[in-house]
Amino acid sequence: MAAAAATAASLFRVVIRRETTTSPLAGKKHRSSVRIPRFAVSVDRPPAPTSAVTTSPEKTNPVVKREEEGERAVDAKVKEEEEESKNRSVFSGMKRFLEESKVIIDEEKENGGGGAPRWFSPPDTVDCSGSWQMEDPPVLLYLPGIDGVGLGLTLHHQKLGRIFDISCMHIPVADRTPFTDLMKIVESRVKSEHQRSPRKPIYLVGESLGACLALAVAARNPDIDLVLILANPATSFSRSQLQLLIPLMEVLPDPLSLGLPELQSLMPGDSERMELGNLLKGLPLQNTTKELMEDFINFSPSLPALADILPKETLLWKLKLLRSASAYANSRLHAVKAQTLILSSEKDELLPSKEEGERLRKLLANSELRKFADSGHFLFLEGNIDLVTVIKGTSFYRRGKKHDYVSDYIPPTPTEFKEVLESYRLLNILTSPVMLSTLEDGTIVKGLAGLPSEGPVIYVGYHMLLGIELGPLVSRILTERDILVRGIAHPLMFRRNDAGLLPDLASFDSFRVMGAVPVAATNLFKLLSSKSHILLYPGGMREALHRKGEEYKLFWPEQSEFVRMAARFGAKIVPFGTVGEDDLAEVVLDYDDLVNIPLFKSLIEKLTAESIPLRTDATGEVANQQVHMPAFLPKVPGRFYYYFGKPIETEGRRHVLKDREKSNELYLQVKSEVEKCLAYLKEKRESDPYRNIVPRLLYKAEHGFDAEVPTFEI
């Protein structure tokens, strides 16, 4: 199964890292129902349909040209996205928040105080020009933090507005509504939305105070389908230094002044605050000094709005409100059954959010935790945080009772894809992958011109050690052919029997962003029915965690697991082989060795117990699904080779559905073709003058670092 081995790789930390001012209380968006493109690579707009590529072996491979055009198109879109968010600098999120808040506060002053807490729809989610909107989106209610303005998601409104129906809560500066009454306001809106759409979830996104409101409402309404997204919850208030401010604030003189330390505590993240501190101290910052100074100059006029948002009396009230909110929410955590995503900033200077995230994850049964190492308290105002990407990566987006990995899937944006591609940059440099494919007439060509343009298609192949071939394979197909391949993955990338030794689920967020789905017959059925391109490894974990001397040996089930379903939808089956793991590393301690060492045997048993068991009724080697990490020695890097065989048609072969013998014949044919692909590559790479990394580096030094390195003659 696709990406099963990425699981094992992550055991030893596979690291894949990661917006106009009008009156924000006005405006109600108008939605259009547009279906998301199946192979879209952009959340902003669908790409042009993929066209067939014809390749002549006598001429320069046009796929190379197509790949360059594809890269240029992606780069152009990335630049467009970067242009849209170019103001996301050190101060931009806070600056924008303060500017928009000032508009609201000025209006409240003109109207004599602002009135009672109320809901508004952000006007900057209205822009539907050139953008798709998710069909029948769920409601998202934003619950503000200590500021109460309701603009904490200002950097995310446009992207969130494409997949949610957003409303934000506004608590006027002069308002003194107690926590329990604020909770009833939210609860009333939740019940109203639930009555209107009882089959759809309701999202509650809360920061600090808002997170306590979300938890309280969820605890009181366990029968309503709620999804909570909590950023730095104030449930930790009793353990924070903020509580010490209450007696201090009562004796502070007016006006309350904000000095540099307080300003820095409001800045987006630790690294950015360090840069600001260095800047103000006059320390050199290499190439960033000019930009930071310009940012600070542009930001400075917005500072007076801080005192307007939180004057002394309001700040004192809000601190007391946090105290009561924290006590109320903590006393009812046991009653919270809602699906919950906790977002914790590890550099939060206002609340001990790092420790609180871990505590809540253990107390809330249906929860997941994501940590942000360099982020401050106001997480959503940081330019490097994309809430939509976080929701996609955690598979928290759904429009029904359960998340549907096909209908609820949102394809990666160019920026998201670029980040994933960058994580494989070193591997691509070290291995210079060679891609071959087969045209309909049987001609083998360099590039991926032989891959079918239209789905459904199932790519069936060999899983290299630790699934290390995955990144180059998926990214190259998307870059060169504009085809998003959905990998069938091991379920431990999505859920666990228990938390413990296995890598954190966050390790696999990028795989989910790129379309990985847990292995299940229903998911394969849905993907085929939607004419998707699917990546499947019948050998799964057993193949990717193979023993010493088992390179390029297939460990497939005795009976077909996919042929009859492929025939039902007339899907094309593309057999492929991947070679090169033995030129990158050598296994020195495999499962058979490790299981004989008591310490490692116990570790393997614990890891396997945490994982979701697969193929429990299978026989033979493929049934050996023990989770472990083989020890290996790296080699001087060789080269990766990929060969996609001639597509096998199942259209018109529906007899395979009922005839087990015929389906088994087709299954064995696919397996045989994969073995032929492997044999072909193993033989041909012997004549590749650039198989070793040294001649490849010399070639790049002469022709340019981005030059495509030649390979063997076909």
Automatic annotation (TrEMBL):
| Gene Ontology CC entries for this record | membrane
Pfam families, per the entry: Abhydrolase_1, DAGAT
Superkingdom is: Eukaryota
Gene3D superfamilies on file:
alpha/beta hydrolase
Q: Which parts of this chain are annotated as the region Disordered?
A: 37-85
Residue span(s) of domain AB hydrolase-1: 182-383
Q: Coiled-coil annotation: which residues?
A: none
Q: Where is the composition biased (Basic and acidic residues)?
A: 64-80
- Key words, A-Z: Acyltransferase, Transferase
The similarity comment for this entry is: Belongs to the diacylglycerol acyltransferase family.
* Name of this chain's protein: AB hydrolase-1 domain-containing protein
Organism of this sequence: Arachis hypogaea (Peanut)
